[in-house]
Amino acid sequence: MAKKFDVYGIGNALVDMEFEVTTDFLKSASIEKGLMTLVDENRQTEIVNTLTGIAHKRSCGGSAANTMIAISQFGGKSFYSCKVASDETGDFYFKDLMDNGVETNLSTSSLESGITGKCIVLITPDADRTMNTFLGITANFSTKELIEEHIKNSNYLYIEGYLVASPTGKEASVKARKIAETHNVKTALTFSDVNMVNFFGDGLKEMIGDGVDLLFCNEAEAFAYTKSNDLNEAVAALKKIAKTFAITLGPRGALIFDGTKEFRVAAPQVKAVDTNGAGDLFAGAFLYGINNGMSFEEAATLGCKSSTTLVTYFGPRLTKEQITTIKG
User: What's the half-sphere exposure (Cβ side, CA atoms, 13 Å) at 112?
Assistant: First the structure.
């Protein structure tokens, strides 16, 4: 019998605020380029104040949220468990998620008092993205936000690696994985960011347990997790923790292991202006594909085509019209 959802995702709920800045700005503000850095509310406010007058886009985000939205945009069925507060930002997040066709555990009556998490995304002229994140209430994402019945009724569970930074988030990830395994739901995990691998590697191992069905990572994350600078060595090591995986290689496309063979998928060559959300969109397009009749190669091709379209625009996601064009 067909499941209700293609993918059930869990992750941090963050309202993304995206600004275009110079590399000099990052230096003057003492912000480490190209990474996701967790900051407290005061530090984030300080950064926002230095950006006064610069126009920015706002959208409901967090890595897994972007992936679940992509699945929905392509025509798939996704569910997202997350945590926001009963403030203006939380109301915005909930509405934006619903407007993008993603079902969720959130409801206006279930929101707690607190502060909804926010992520400042700083885009430099080289198209790199640097993130400073105040988690707010999403730091308390826990097993309470899980809906076991919906996990059981999904083809895949998708776990965002960023959850490893929160003890309750890590606990929820482990529990969700165990629920999925008990009910023969396939498990997928993304490493999310090289900082998560470098600073929370042991926690990620807990989240992975005896292994996942599908792993998403980029080349830097693969090297960091496997403690190797050789792609072949990293691939061999990842096979021990994931039945299948996709390693994104930026403009060089992606390396895929489908459980039997490895292959490369090329990415169309474009001039990138903003790489924010490219990995999230690749995962969303890929998961949509393998849940809707595509081979791993076809799904990876769709992922590369989607993410290379995205990086030519500012913002973490494509429009519905762009998705329609990509699907052909």
Answer: 12
Q: Which amino acid is at 93?
A: Y
Q: What pLDDT does 111 receive? A: 85
The two tokens of residue 150 are 């919906």
Kind and range of the H or E element at 194?
helix 194-208
pTM: 0.95
Structure tokens at 155: 């083809």
pLDDT digits (tens, 9 = 90+) for 295-317: 999 999 999 999 999 999 988 88
- Cβ burial, residue 212 (10 Å; 0-12/13-18/19+): buried
Distance CA 5, CA 294 (A): 17
Of 133, 181, 138, 134, the closest CA to residue 157 belongs to 181
b/e 234-258 (16+ beta carbons within 10 angstroms → b):
bbeebbebbebbbbbbbeebbbbbb
Q: What is the pLDDT of residue 249?
A: 96
CA atoms within 13 A on the CB side of 225: 31
**DSSP bridge partners of 7:** 78, 156
Q: For residue range 264-296, list pLDDT tens digits in order.
A: 999 999 999 999 899 999 999 999 999 999 999
Angstrom distances, CA of residue 162 to CA of 29, 141, 145: 24, 11, 16
CA distance 277 to 296: 21
Report residues of the chain scoring pLDDT below 50: none
CATH topology of domain 5-12+62-109+137-327: UDP-N-acetylmuramoyl-L-alanine:D-glutamate ligase (3.40.1190)
CB distance 296 to 256 below 8 Å: yes
Residue type, 54: I
The CA angle 278-288-220, to the nearest 5 degrees, is 35
Identify the pLDDT of residue 47: 96
DSSP, collapsed to helix, strand or coil, labels residue 290 as helix
